[in-house]
Amino acid sequence: MKPVMIGQLARETSTKVTTIRFYESIGLLRSAPRTASGRRTYDASDIERLQFIRNGRRLGFSVDELRSLMGLAENPDQDCGAASAIAARHLKNVEARLAQLAVLRDELEMLSQSCTKARMADCRIMRAIGSGHPRPEPQ
Amino acid sequence: MKPVMIGQLARETSTKVTTIRFYESIGLLRSAPRTASGRRTYDASDIERLQFIRNGRRLGFSVDELRSLMGLAENPDQDCGAASAIAARHLKNVEARLAQLAVLRDELEMLSQSCTKARMADCRIMRAIGSGHPRPEPQ
DNA sequence: CTACCACCTCTAGTCGCTGTAGAAGCAAGT
DNA sequence: ACTTGCTTCTACAGCGACTAGAGGTGGTAG
Prior knowledge:
Chain A is mainly alpha-helical. Helix content of chain A is 60%, strand content 3%. Chain A contains 6 helices and 2 strands. Chain A has helices at 6-13, 17-25, 44-58, 63-72, 81-113, 124-131, and strands spanning 4-5, 41-42. The first copy, chain A, has a two-stranded antiparallel sheet. The longest helix of chain A has 33 residues, at 81-113. Chain A is elongated and about 70 Å long. At the A-B interface, helix 3, helix 5 and helix 6 of A face helix 3, helix 5 and helix 6 of B.
């Protein structure tokens, strides 16, 4: 209930103190009110907001997307189409990266399997990276 | 056979001119010899080296890893254990990221499906991000 | 009184580029 | 000879999302 200082907020949200200050500096968190000696103080709504940010980041939303989402949340009567559009777009991006990464893994697997413990000069891994064709070479 | 200038090298390796200069500045490419008027000149071995770098980057190797790999290549008689270790470690990293990303996708999918075109104030997506539990809520 | 911690500000570094500004080189066309 | 237009040069700022460090102040416990 009572306001907490930055270290407490950090502990409660598994965030580094410097990160919280960083979020304030980029306007993702409001400028926290200060004590007489200049220390930032936070209340329950700040904890909630930071938790939203941390979870959003964990889910891969960019700071800009989070800014948009939190901006939308300020009009509670609007429908959430815009918000779900952001989530859907993000999901699509994640799926695309996932597909890319799967291709990469396959290439790297072939590359790794091609190693025959040779001299560097004959190393198939090195040749595969150089040629851009990470397939096991025809004998 | 004859040396080429930076633009030509860029075209032959699908690399931007600025990127080539950047690689030189971080010591990934050697300092290219210059013409009388100060322009960089490259030969066949530079093309090969840059191709290695580009393919390595495409495969997700970090600049440091490429530096190591190219350093190892300078001792052609050593065995390629160190090189294949780098590749194996990288493959492991890629596999780990792939797994993480798959979890993320599943969470985002649940989150997206939970949308019922509500008012922002009732939006399940927003609540899911906030709570860190992107499961469709029990009504 | 002093040690120690939490807090403050400000700056710079990370990674792998990309983009810009402003100057100079160079070949071809008029 | 001059102009046009491309390429190249250097040097530096910016991206995203932090992280780390220096150097200082505030508040409290022993």
